[in-house]
């Protein structure tokens, strides 16, 4: 039988490590965004800033909120939500208990986290499209058409993922219901439906965004070395796709193991 004290100590250590990592990544993101803005102001002045320069700060603000929510999952809810409980445990858990409150709170935080996370990603994708508009200014109109198609695709896909988040579990309060078991679709932390829908539209929108600059750079008259370097830079989205895939697999695997 596991030592409760050792388990508690391990959880505290894991939360401390997560907190350090989360706040460090946020600090790095703010620093990089600040440097980007500084470089842009030096280049074009404050009046010359474009939509993508503003949207990166909207994204930075959302990232601050998301990090705060992620931190509160451990600090307030102690990593708990309405998942990972056998039926008999659910039935025995008193609504007046501290754990019941933590699980309800944790589920609500998870729901808010998904909302902010999706909006953050889609704001960054929108910022990239505005950057592409600057990048392709004066070139073939076909690029502009693809960019406008991208705006439409992003708008529709964001509505779909948010609708799936808020409408897949009905009635809505089941998203934090403890007993009776509301089912996996109502577990905000590990819902397979939420995860797969986000994954599908996150990947397809990323692939569409990649399809805009890479062909343009390939056809350009830049020196081969510079051309390949820029293509590799824009193809960094492939790394993001790999990370998103691994994240999806991890969440789904955990939810299947628990169920």
UniProtKB/TrEMBL annotation:
<feature type="transmembrane region" description="Helical">
    <location>
        <begin position="195"/>
        <end position="218"/>
    </location>
</feature>
<protein>
    <recommendedName>
        <fullName>Rhodopsin domain-containing protein</fullName>
    </recommendedName>
</protein>
<dbReference type="GO" id="GO:0016020">
    <property type="term" value="C:membrane"/>
</dbReference>
<feature type="transmembrane region" description="Helical">
    <location>
        <begin position="230"/>
        <end position="258"/>
    </location>
</feature>
<feature type="domain" description="Rhodopsin">
    <location>
        <begin position="36"/>
        <end position="253"/>
    </location>
</feature>
<feature type="transmembrane region" description="Helical">
    <location>
        <begin position="22"/>
        <end position="39"/>
    </location>
</feature>
<feature type="transmembrane region" description="Helical">
    <location>
        <begin position="114"/>
        <end position="135"/>
    </location>
</feature>
<comment type="similarity">
    <text>Belongs to the SAT4 family.</text>
</comment>
<dbReference type="Pfam" id="PF20684">
    <property type="entry name" value="Fung_rhodopsin"/>
</dbReference>
<dbReference type="InterPro" id="IPR049326">
    <property type="entry name" value="Rhodopsin_dom_fungi"/>
</dbReference>
<keyword id="KW-0812">Transmembrane</keyword>
<feature type="transmembrane region" description="Helical">
    <location>
        <begin position="147"/>
        <end position="167"/>
    </location>
</feature>
<keyword id="KW-1133">Transmembrane helix</keyword>
<keyword id="KW-0472">Membrane</keyword>
<feature type="transmembrane region" description="Helical">
    <location>
        <begin position="54"/>
        <end position="77"/>
    </location>
</feature>
<dbReference type="InterPro" id="IPR052337">
    <property type="entry name" value="SAT4-like"/>
</dbReference>
């Amino acid at each position: 039988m596991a030592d409760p004290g050792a388990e508690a100590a391990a959880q505290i250590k894991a939360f401390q490590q997560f907190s350090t990592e989360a706040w460090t990544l946020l600090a790095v993101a703010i620093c990089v965004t600040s440097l980007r803005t500084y470089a842009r102001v030096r280049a074009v002045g404050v009046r010359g800033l474009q939509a993508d320069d503003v949207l990166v700060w909207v994204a930075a603000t959302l990232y601050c909120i998301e990090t705060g929510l992620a931190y509160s999952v451990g600090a307030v809810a102690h990593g708990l939500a309405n998942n990972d409980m056998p039926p008999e445990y659910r039935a025995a858990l008193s609504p007046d208990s501290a754990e019941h409150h933590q699980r309800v709170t944790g589920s609500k935080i998870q729901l808010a986290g998904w909302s902010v996370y999706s909006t953050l990603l889609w704001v960054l994708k929108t910022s990239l499209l505005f950057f592409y508009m600057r990048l392709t200014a004066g070139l073939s109109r076909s690029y502009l058409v693809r960019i406008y198609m991208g705006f439409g695709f992003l708008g529709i896909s964001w509505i779909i993922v948010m609708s799936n988040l808020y409408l897949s579990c009905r009635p809505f309060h089941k998203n934090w219901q403890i007993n009776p078991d509301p089912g996996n679709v109502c577990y905000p932390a590990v819902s397979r439906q939420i995860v797969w829908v986000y994954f599908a539209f996150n990947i397809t929108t990323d692939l569409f965004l990649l399809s805009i600059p890479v062909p343009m750079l390939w056809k350009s008259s830049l020196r081969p070395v510079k051309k390949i370097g820029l293509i590799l830079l824009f193809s960094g989205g492939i790394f993001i796709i790999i990370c998103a895939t691994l994240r999806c697999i991890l969440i789904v695997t955990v939810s299947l193991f628990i169920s």
